[in-house]
Write a structure and sequence with these properties.
7-stranded mixed β-sheet; elongated; Thrombin, subunit H; Rossmann fold; about 25% helix; 6 helices; 7-stranded antiparallel β-sheet; 14 strands; about 290 residues; alpha+beta
């Protein structure tokens, strides 16, 4: 069966368009933490949560954990502040990673709370404070392209606190880690949106606008029915003697059917005329997953 080229992930607004036909290779570095700020088993749980956020998208090749552990052993990362040097980047290259994900646990601690009822009975519960910093390092340049501090959503002024009412410190920390899963998913989606080419325009309306089209992306990249996508036109503009890449959004799509691992059918909800005219003019168009 004829293979269709599938574009790999790109960092929108942060790195140039990634040109390739394979899934993006990502190395999850051993997470660091300050002494007394967290326990090693909790840090490992947080790292696994981040790793799972990449794995479940089906859009990444994750560098083997045992190979990444070599970086931890050499730099003793578990007991030091996060850092990136030339040697670490070079090892990332040798492991085949395009990007390294660095994580530092600022705080993962549980605090004891006591409350008395009308009869003087004391109830002991625990609340957790969790805060982590995630960084994306481009192995090709050695540069940190994005950095974000992630904390659970709270409804009060106690930054990063969650898990109130848990019966044990461990339960409070577990609840807090569960509370950041959605934010970690958003971090992955925002910084590594998947991109796919348009294969063909299948249906048009009376004005010549695309109403249904096929893209080269399916279950292999975690796409599913109902997903919303955007269509962008890629062009180059010279500014002060320097060529800059411009990504102009021209339309929106919604997946109506995922045919297999390679193809999906989409309906056009916005910009059908532009999409069709530029597709016929062989402009460089890409379909990108939305945040």
């Amino acid at each position: 069966m004829k293979k269709i080229i599938i574009a790999t992930a790109l960092l929108v607004g942060l790195t140039p368009l990634v040109k390739g036909q394979e899934k993006t290779s990502v190395g999850i570095m051993a997470f660091t933490y300050a002494s007394g700020a967290a326990k090693s088993n909790d840090v490992n749980s947080i790292q696994e949560t981040v790793t799972n956020a990449f794995v479940k998208t089906k859009r990444f090749n994750i560098v083997d954990r045992t190979k990444m552990d070599a970086l931890k052993q050499e730099k003793n990362l578990q007991k030091s502040e996060d850092f990136i040097d030339g040697s670490t980047i070079q090892q990332g290259v040798s492991l085949g990673a395009s990007f390294l994900i660095s994580g530092h646990v600022i705080s993962a601690q549980a605090e004891r709370m006591e409350a008395k009822d009308d009869k003087g009975n004391v109830t002991t519960t625990y609340k957790a404070k969790l805060s982590i910093q995630l960084k994306v390092i481009d192995v090709a340049t050695g540069q940190i392209v994005t950095s974000e501090t992630i904390e659970p959503k709270t409804g009060n002024s106690m930054l990063g606190a969650i898990g109130i009412g848990s019966s044990t410190p461990e339960a409070a920390i577990s609840k807090a880690i569960k509370g950041i899963e959605e934010k970690i998913d958003d971090f992955v989606s925002k910084n590594f949106p998947a991109t796919f080419p348009i294969v063909e325009i299948q249906e048009k309306d009376s004005k010549g606008g695309a109403t249904k089209l096929m893209i080269a992306g399916g279950t292999a990249f975690g796409l599913k029915k109902g997903d919303k996508l955007k269509v962008v036109e890629i062009s180059e503009i010279e500014v002060n003697g320097k060529k800059l890449q411009r990504k102009k959004e021209i339309g929106e799509l919604k997946i109506s059917k995922v045919e297999d691992e390679n193809f999906s059918i989409c309906t056009c909800s916005m910009g059908g005329v532009d999409i069709n005219s530029k597709f016929e003019a062989k402009a460089k168009l890409l379909v990108i997953t939305k945040d």
